[in-house]
## 1
Amino acid sequence: MILPCLIVVPLAAGVLAWAAERRSASAARWIALIAVLADFLLTLFLWISNSHGGFTTWYAQTDWAWIPQFGIRFHLAVDGLSLLLLMLTFFLGALSILASWREIDEAVGFFHLNLLWILAGIAGVFLAVNLFLFYFAWELMLVPMYFLIAIWGHENRVYAAVKFFIFTQLSGLLMLIAILGLFFLHHGATGVYTFEYRDLLSTPMSPKAEMWMMLGFFAAFAVKLPVVGLHTWLPDAHTEAPTAGSVILAGLLLKTGAYGMLRFVLPLFPHAAQAFSPVAMALGAAGILYGALLAFGQSDLKRLVAYTSVSHLGFVLLGIFAWNGLSLQGALVTMICHGISTGALFILAGALQDRIHTREMDRMGGIWSTAPRLSGAALFFSLASLGLPGLGDFVGEFLVLLGTYRQSIILAVLAAIGVLFATFYALRLVQRAFQGPNTHNWRIPDLAPREGLVMALMIAVLLWLGVYPRPVLDTFRPAMTRLEQLAPGR
Amino acid sequence: MNVTGKDLVALLPLLILAATAVVVMLAVAVHRSHAVSAALTLVGLAISFGSLWIAGPQLPRQVTPLLVLDGYALFYTGLILAAGMVFVLLAYGYFEKFEDDHDELYILMLVATLGSAVLVSSSHFVSLFLGLELLSVALYGMIAYPRHRPLPLEAGIKYLVLAAVSAAFLLFGMALIYGALGTMQFDEIGARLTRTDFDRWLVLPGMALIVTGFGFKLAVVPFHLWTPDVYEGAPAPVAGYIATVSKGAMFALLLRYFYRTAAHELAPLFLLFSIIAIASMFAGNILALLQKNVKRILAYSSIAHLGYLLVAFQASGDLAPTAVAFYLVAYFVTTLGAFGVVGVLSDDTEDADSLEAYKGLFWRRPVVGGIFTAMLFSLAGIPVTAGFIGKFYVVAAGASAAMWGLVIILVITSATGLFYYLRIVVAMYSEAGQVKAAPAIAQPETWVLIFLSASLVFLGLFPQPLLELIRNLARG
């Protein structure tokens, strides 16, 4: 019963927070925070209580009939991969509530309703092992995200929100066609109507059909990830969203794309994915370079951070499709660490915008002299983002590079050049925004204790992952081994 | 042919409807009262709805060569009656704002509902035409009912011209088919079409003319030109009634006629339907983008939705009748709800149909704004609403028949459709913090709308009961 709770608690708390707004805005905030923390503790409990068992299979399941004649079931399950991402979900969820404690003062209850419902939708995506349910959750998380951007976003919010919504909807519908194609193929081969992940895994199909289905799934996940070329919604949405929205977009929504690749594209269509992997890896490497170059050219702080996401998620794509043990581990660590380091950068950008009412780096400079704690944290996360050894991002990118090297030396070299570019944009960010003379004479308050706590937690996690990533890798290992065995002809 | 007692029992829902129209007319002759007329109508519809359970055990039954009362007819009659009840509740609140006599509206509406019920039960060209005319003639009056306002009058006349033209097409088509095949009974037409000794050059034009006549009533492209004007001009609840009952009954008839005669499998007709479906999906969604008037947006969106339904219709197969039936139920609930919201916001001078009227609606009146959001998301096919399951079934029907081209066009155009639904949503949620909640206005229709939204969400989460019902009844 733990798994449905992970979805129901935020849903219910969202309604409660909305109702509580009438009494006081801070009641809504507290309800939301407590609900997300409760879910975080639940996932932590699941993790600790299963850690000695080695995470071998699905280790908690809920399976209820929904539309039985179509094989549509309310079927939730977790394995190591989804559990790690669930913990990340509620961790970042709690931090984004804390980060927007002061920023949001209009319609506070409705804001938290949307925020909690996004988290519920994301949890549904990570938990669903029925393809209909997965698609349901996949579409569901868009609506509150759309509201979050469209109502509480910055200047150009409506444009960004609509663009985000349409990109993801259209690609989601392509996935729906592929899901239905798979469903009818399975029916044709076995006579059974089912959307169950387990059953569909071994659907026999022609190479051509497999390739088309794979592309349908790939399209949906590639838009979310984002793969370069399909990424244009991302800079707009990340920049215009309120802080909590940016954190959740970068930290979690992008990860649902990577999760989809790992959970569905590779296992359901191993041969097509294998045939497609050179293209996907090339796209990943292109994303690394393209994102880094564009990040270097930005003057808007949030836009810069948004483009670094394109670059980092390029590593994830590269790692997934290089498809060996090292690269898969690297992709997972990159997913988690990118969620934290980029999330932190968005929180800092939000805190800064709250104080100086601009995101333009030209209007900044010399912030260090007036807000040293904020600037120090920014330096830390910029260094994490450029892949400084000792921090989590380094572990992930290093493993991806090692794994890629086995498949393609050229792509590994290109990706390594991307790491070099990361140094440029990260240091440029720190130099232009925080160091140098304080030409605009900013006098701003430094990080408040609440913000300091958020930063401290994120720093601690990144350090932990950088120095001792074993527990995370161990949790992921059984799922990874299964994926590795699926790789045809290796 | 003799009509037996059992036949009369099977006809009970239709008889009660007809009787109610007479009773309301007599009541109006004695004493004019908006409340009494509406209440009598509601009770009549409810009794007729209840009599479906009495008629049920007698089915399926062919009553005279004209009407076939089977599970399919029962299901759609029930849907039409339910929509009629919702209409009465919405229309009562809407028309109560006007200083005028409103009683005749309910008589007209009962006649239109009777016509729709005849349509979904018809198995013969004669009953088809009878039902259609009952429906159309009543609708002219309903559209132009606020006769002191220019827009409804204009809309009424437009609808009159259109319906007359489409009836002419239909009649001519029927005549050609009768000339070629010598029968007007659907099953017989189907049987004679399987032989090859008929004159193709009479049958095909005849079928094409019939499709044209149907096309006008369904407002699919290229027969859609009247729709936006009529929707804009008609009073909001009446526009909702045209969009749902009139089109829904017509679509149910289309399905029965073509599945019984299997005429849509003739290659030229299949192509014709494909073109109509594609054109409707494109034109409906793209033209809706250009509109600034909420009722016109809903009009174009209904054109697109009929296009989606045609995709399911084309698929035939096991899944198609289920997909169509579920989609129609979702579409009924959603469209009645959406026009209900427009009606609730309207006053006695004009309908609230400009986008301006919706700015900040959610902050002013959260309940109405929330309901409209649910309706728009259902039209867009977002999960947790019935529209999502409906769209899922339509796409599934298309995929099961491997009509990938149509399905992909459906997907792309419906993503385009998001633009204009979201535009209304954006307007409703704009101006956060600047608009204060308005004092609550007691409007009984709001409860109807809340009920519709609740059904929308219920069907979106638990479609199983309705799917069971459809499986038992509406498979035709």
## 2
Amino acid sequence: MGVLELSGVGVRYGAREALSGIDLVVPEGQVLSLLGPSGGGKTSLLRVIAGLEPASAGTLRFDGRELTDVPPHERGFGLMFQDYALFPHLDVAGNVGFGLRMAAWPAHRVRARVAEMLELVGLPGAEARSVGRLSGGEQQRVALARALAPSPRLLMLDEPMGSLDRALRERLPLELRGIFERLGITVVYVTHDQEEAFSVADRTVILRGGRVEADGTPEMLWGQPPTEFVARFLGFRNVAPGVWQEAGIDTPWGRLSMADPRGTAEPAGDDAAASVTTEGRIELTVVLRPEALSVAAGGPISGMVTARRFRGDHVLITVAVADAPDLELELRGAPLPAVGDAVSLAVDPRGVILIPG
Amino acid sequence: MSRRAALLLAAPPIVFLAVFFAWPVASILAAGLFPNGQLDVRGLVATWTQPWALRTVAFTLALAIGSTLLTLAAGMPAAWVFARFEFRGRRLLRALSIVPFVLPTVVVGAAFLALLGPRSPVNAALAGLLGPSAPVLRLDGTIWAVLLANVFYNVAVVLRLVGGLWSHLDPRTEEAARMLGASPWRAFREVTWPLLRPAVMSAASIVFLFTVTSFGIVLVLGGPGQSTLEVEIYRQTAVLLDLPAAAALSVLQIGGIFTLLLLYARSQERLAVEGALRPAAEMARPPRTRRERLAVGGTLLGLGLLIGLPLLVLVERSFAGIGGYSLDAYRSLFSVSARSALFVPPARAIADSLVFATATLLIAGCLGLLAALVIGYRRGWLPRTFDAVVMLPLGTSAVTIGFGFIIALDQPPLDLRTSVLLIPIAHALIALPFVVRAVAPVIRAIDPRLREAAAVLGASPSRVWRAIDGPIVARAALVGAGFAFAVSLGEFGATLFIARPDTPTVPVAIYRLLNLPGGTNFSQAMAMSTILMVMTAASVLLIERFRGSGPQPF
């Protein structure tokens, strides 16, 4: 078993409400990522689950057992801290074996388990090394081994990639994912980086201002962000208010012809109808994916190129449109417009996201 | 700075130290080890093995060990509270908790005499409640008064050293231990304690060193038979006029302290643990649970009582007269009464003390600045050795210095016995390490990129010095001079040996007043102590304002 249930959980620091009304069920073996801007309450939620912070409201259960009066050292959870919080006075083996010694394992079993854990995280034979001399990536592995060694019922990770360089940040989430799958462990993974969250997790919860803003699989959230905040947080920049009426959408960039958003695929959410102000008129947030835009003579949007950024496999073009927010589009291959060129843009309707409200 | 310039700058402080430190200390050693011009330790050993000498050594060590343990017991919880919790008035309380450490020993002695002696308001309250048959609290003359005063005096050392490190320890290492199954106590023992141990050990060593040389407090508060080595050296010199015995004890004292300092330096090298330090601001948080609030409140209350009560009672007693509160004690400072312990109006002592302190400020300020320039700007073993030599007076007890002055500077070519200059010279010697510590680290901490930036912007080398180093060094020198002033105001041990009867400093005057019976003398002592406390506090506050956020000398 390993089911974590939160209902109505809140945390206050004096007058400030860090978390409120958090309802969440994490089934056994699920890897859940908590995503959100800093100050969104991610770390507070993690600390409440760990028992390092008292909840000021609500209840937490693990496998049906109420956690409120269980002190952190009796919860049997693992927590990997931001910046790892390794014990500087102990060597690698002392760090990894710490939880086992707390559980009064005999020394020879501790040694065997430490070796096994170091093997698992890819640092075999590192037992006698001093933690002060480890690189960032090695420290992260030791911290993970330390958290995993006592076989926690739930593993929590707080910004584990926080201080690593870019190459590691791209490689390690996959390794972590592999380890989680092998162990079949329930995981709560906190990060502010959406790419990391999506590559590690089965499911992502986005926190904003201490509340749940969105909850779904990475594919769902990416394909159809439920709110404007989520769309902007995920990195979409062509976002503006729009109005659907008569088989098209009026946006600040001009009119885009579209099917009825209540019809075919777009937009999700049953409350779309609630936004209908008058017959056949719906207020929406319109998101244009950068790859949905292309340069095409006679396109419906016209503007001027103000910036061009080389991004390796594509070039990011910024286009200023009169009386509207700038648009960003990704172009692959020549010909590329130069800064200062007037361009017309076409929109692929499949790359338009409509968010009700 | 060239080698020649460094030698020129270093010459005045070296000459000063040679004449007024090395020569007196050598004289003591010579008097003890070479009584008749030849090495002969029989006299030393004979003195050391006298029962009274053995008792003195045993009492000195026992007092120091007891004081150190009690100071740790009082200081550790407070260090924890200040390191881990954020609460209203935290900064103010932290600043106030340092106050005892800068107070002159005589003031501390007087304050505890006021609180624990026969004239304590506690006794007045008891008598008021229970009538004339009320029990009388009298802890003066007992070891408890001395122990309490030592704790009061040194708790700031633990707060600064242990609390300082603790506030930089990442609480998450302890939380990590909790998550791995350690109970709160186990997490402290396995994680926090090993990381804290170097600071605890160095605080304990420093408190031990301070209390093993404690003089003023024992002299004022201790009873008959309670004599530390320091007090005994003074008694043999000034009361029994047995200079060979005093020299024998001094040799023991110098040797003992030298050994302690060596051990301390060795242990510091061994104990250092690297890593896991974080900016303190991220660590403190308000107490959350009821238990935490109780712990924080209780600790602060205890600390407040320990530090606040003696000082409040001191001030209260200075105003308490026969018929209620008045300024009588303060007014009487301006006259010489027939039964007074002093040959001059006590107010004269205040004026004299200010003159001595100003002279000390000038002497120690100039010499210290010269030494600090060499130590700050030159690299290599020679300046490092010079640094260690300049620090020596700090490790030497004031009584050794006073006694050394008496036996070394009493004959031509240097017969200064009757010169009033002797007092500021002794004070400057004691203050010199403080000045150097205030200035040299600041010079070393100047970011060389600042100078490079100025040079790249077109400043000539001398212009760079005036623009970048000059203001920083001047400010640090002012801080150092302020320390010298404060040290001089409070210095007691050495002054007691060398002050002439007609020019007592304030601490000496207070001691003489406390030694005599009579309510007037007592009230005057309280009034003088209050004045000295205010003067010291004012100079320290002034220093703090100047100091800003540079490296701290301690």
